[in-house]
Amino acid sequence: MALVNIVIALALCQYIVFAFAVGKARGRCNVPAPAITGNAEFERYYRVQMNTLELLIAFIPASLIFGYYVSSLWAAVLGLVYLVGRVLYFLAYIQDPSRRELGFALSLGPIGFLLLGALYGATRVALGL
To answer: Which residue, of 58, 67, 88, 117, has the fewest CB within 10 Å?
Structure first.
């Protein structure tokens, strides 16, 4: 499970990096707090951060459950794919939001596998199989 925990810690660090990018964009684009609209560049940074937060809510518990009941190695591997997907999403979305599909797929896909695997593994144990 150490590998799973490392990947989760990296995902949290990645989120913090995205939050700092939003802060820098806020200053560069002159969007004073608490505003979150009014500048398209800033809004793209902000949406990446919020989308990442939305996915973390599913990614973290799914990784832990999958790692515990199915395979910690595969949970970590899927988590690394998620991290790469988030970077690709970030880079694409801040340049042109219409190019975000690959990054989003590489983020959401691993979460789907982790969730299904977590449900399968926990159900097998609960049923004594």
So the answer is: 58
